[in-house]
Structures are given as C-alpha cells and as structure tokens.
Design brief:
With 431 residues, this protein is of the alpha/beta class. It is built from 17 helices and 14 strands. It starts with a helix and ends with a strand. InterPro entries: Glyco_trans_14.
C-alpha cells in the first residue's frame, strides 16, 4: 500500500516536471526560429561594413589642404576597392539590418520637409552601391523614389534594386520598364514611366527631379526644399534655341541599329526627312534632366499635344534632349518659359552641373578626375568648387575613379542637413 502511494506521488511529481520541460523546449524552438528569421546570418554579418570607407580628413579636402588632397590622389591610385553589388543584395535580404546599418531609421524630418515632399525618377543600370548611396544622400521619409532599372541590367543589379524597394517603404520599382539604349526614345520613356507611377502614388509631392546612377546631390534635402519653394511653381531646366547641327537630330528620321561597342544599339541617321513637329511646335534643345512642378507633370500627362509630340519624337536622335526643353516653352503650360525669353543654358539652370572638357579653364577649373567622352568624372580636388558653384546636382561621379570625393560629399551633406534643420525647425521627427 505504501509502495503504491509512493509511485502515485512520483508520477504526480514527474508529470508536471515533464510538462515544464516540454514547454521549455517549445519556447526554445520558437526562440531559435525567431533568431533565424530576424538576426543576420554570418554571411550577411560580414557585409555590415557596407562599402569601403577611406581614412581621409574631408574638412581638409574641402579646404584644399595640399597634403590631404595629395593623400587622396595616392589612395585613388593604389587603394581603390570595388564595392560589390552582391553585398547589397545580401544586406537587403535582412531589411531591419539594412535600415539600421545605413541609418535610414535615424533620418530626421523637419516640418518644412514634411510639408514639401519631393519625388525622384532614377533611371539606373549598374553600380548598385552607388545607386543606394545616391538614394541615401537624398533620403527623406516624406519623399518618394521611383527606380527604373534597365531591363538589360545584370541579375545581381536587379536583385539589389528590388532589395532597396522591398526594404524602403517610399522606394518602388517602375511598373513598366524599358530596354534602354543610348540616345534613343527608350531613355525618355523610362522617365515617363516613372512620372506616370509617381502621379498615381498617395504622396502629393510638389516637384519631381530625374537623375541617373552617376549623379549626386550638392544640396541636402532641406536645402533643396528651400530652393524649390523659391521657384513658386516654375520649372527648372535647360532650354535653348537649337544650332544648325542640333537641328539635324530631329530633321531626319533615325533608325535604331546594332552597334559593335558598349551601347549595343544606336540611332542612325537616314536620308528620310521628317515632317515638321505637330501643332506648329517650335523646337528647343536642352538635356535629359529636369526639375518639374507637379502641376506641369499633371498637364503633360493629359495633353493631346504632348502625346502627339512624343509620337513624332520617337524616331529622332536623343529625344530626351529636346522633349522637355520644348514642352516647357509651350503656351500656357504650368510654370512654363515663354518662347520669347532668352536661352536658359546648362550653367544658368541649377538642375545639374556637368564639366565639359573643351570648356575647362574657360568657364570652370580643370577636371581633377578623369574624362569620359569629354565629360569630367570629378575628383576630390573639386569638392569645394562643386559645393559652392550654386547647382543642386552634378554629374559624373564614379567610386572607381575617385571614391574620396563621394565619401566627402556624403559627409558634407549630412553636416549641412543637420545645420539647416536646426535653424529651420525646433522639432525633428525621425522616420
């Protein structure tokens, strides 16, 4: 009897202990699953150092200290590390880690920026980390960013762009994407695809700015907001009367043909003369880049004249370099430039600063980086000049040519953002 009672007591004691043990095991399994899902794998942890940072004093670079500028030249010659897109793909596979490691959770938004959201159309095709750094330099939770990647881009680059869009709630991929070929209408259509998507977004942005992967801002977000408010609805872009040589681009029919070098296909001039532009439109030229008001974009999106002009432009050479420049001169468009007004050159328009080799030492100092097709890829010695010339964006930048300049621009822009926010607003909301 005593033996039976002892066994019964043992069972009663054992079963609660077993239940506790099973509960503990279940909790441990949940914990392991949670860790696997939220904490980075060892491979991803290795990539938290997102891209190579160089030991350089950017304040001394900005002040044109010869020793530090000389040091940047040595780094450029001997120590440039290529930033692999694969590491961005790995990092964006864990969005909380990506957002934390790149500081997107620590971006401050003033009331001024919140009340004046901006939109961006980014047409890109390579250098994934450079695209991410461009977005980060422009980033505000109140803004919206459309990414149009070239359909011909590498699978790794596309994965990196998809990763950015997945991790950042105000970044999205264009719903329709083009195979983009140099100087063809596909480049123009890429921006038009983004503009259409941006108009359909819930963000009621005030201005839209288009950029490519080798552009970089020269103003912080709050500075851009301040500058754009001064426009009071006007547009900012280059628009000039065409020279005789530029007229050839839209006087003749061009055909997209195979090319044996990097562009793959190029528009080639034929002897077929085109009819004049529809609706008696007077032609102007500029470049592919713009700062456009929302009202202007709404107008062109529904305009029959604009649709006819786009169709007429499809077989021209580099239509993006006359399309916007001409539209902004049309009678009655919101924020337009009257046809009788003087030319607005690229140096007069603050949209985008490009340094042409044949104008160096005439209009601006020599290129301290390298030239590609007569365009300067900027070097670190131009940091002070770039930030003080007065433009809002510049082209071209390439971390394989001079990573120091990009690193120092990032540092200076962050510094200016903090300074201007502290002056503009007493309160700052983190996104």
């Amino acid at each position: 009897m005593n033996k039976g009672c002892s066994l019964l007591r043992l069972r009663r004691k054992f079963f609660p202990s077993l239940l506790s043990l099973l509960t503990l095991c279940a909790l441990l399994l949940i914990r392991v699953k949670y860790i696997n899902e939220t904490e980075p794998s060892p491979a991803v942890q290795d990539d938290i150092q997102t891209f190579n940072k160089y030991n350089i004093n950017c304040l001394a670079i900005y002040d044109m200290d010869p020793v530090e500028v000389g040091k940047s030249l040595i780094i450029r010659k001997n120590q440039v590390v290529e930033d692999k897109g694969e590491s961005l793909v790995n990092l964006t596979s864990n969005c909380p880690l990506f957002i934390k490691s790149r500081g997107y959770d620590d971006v401050c938004v003033s009331e001024e920026e919140k009340d004046f959201p901006l939109a961006y159309s980014l047409v890109v095709h390579k250098s994934a980390w450079m695209v991410e750094r461009l977005i980060k330099a422009l980033y505000s939770p109140s803004n919206i960013y459309c990414l149009h990647y070239d359909q011909k881009s590498s699978a790794q680059f596309i994965a990196a762009m998809e990763g950015l869009a997945r991790c950042l709630p105000n970044v999205f991929i264009a719903s329709k994407r083009e195979n983009v070929f140099y100087a063809s209408v596909s480049r123009l259509k890429a921006d038009l695809n983004c503009l259409s998507d941006l108009l359909g977004s819930e963000v009621k942005w005030k201005y839209v700015i288009n950029l490519c992967g080798q552009d970089f801002p020269l103003k912080s977000n709050i500075e851009l907001v301040s500058e754009l408010k001064k426009l009071k609805g006007a547009n900012m872009l280059e628009t000039s009367r065409p020279t005789d040589s530029k007229k050839q681009r839209f006087t003749f029919h061009y055909e997209l043909r195979d090319a044996s070098f990097e562009y793959q296909k190029l528009p080639v001039k034929t002897e077929q003369v085109k009819p004049p532009p529809p609706h008696g439109i007077e032609m102007f030229i500029g470049n592919a880049y713009f700062v456009l008001s929302r009202d202007f974009v709404v107008h062109i999106d529904s305009s029959v004249v604009v649709k006819d002009f786009l169709a007429w432009s499809e077989d021209t050479y580099s239509p993006d370099e006359h399309f916007w420049a001409t539209l902004v001169r049309l009678e009655g468009v919101p924020g337009g430039v009257h046809r009788s007004q003087p030319d607005i050159t690229d140096l007069m328009s603050k949209t985008r600063l490009v340094k042409w080799q044949y104008l160096e030492e005439n209009l601006y100092p020599p290129c301290s980086g390298e030239h590609v097709r007569s365009v300067c890829i900027f070097g670190a010695a131009e940091l002070h000049w770039l930030l003080n010339y007065g433009h809002w964006f510049a082209n071209k930048f390439d971390p394989k040519v001079d990573p120091i300049l990009i690193q120092c621009l990032e540092e200076k822009l962050e510094e200016k953002q903090r300074l201007f926010q502290s002056v503009a607003s007493n309160t700052c909301r983190k996104g």
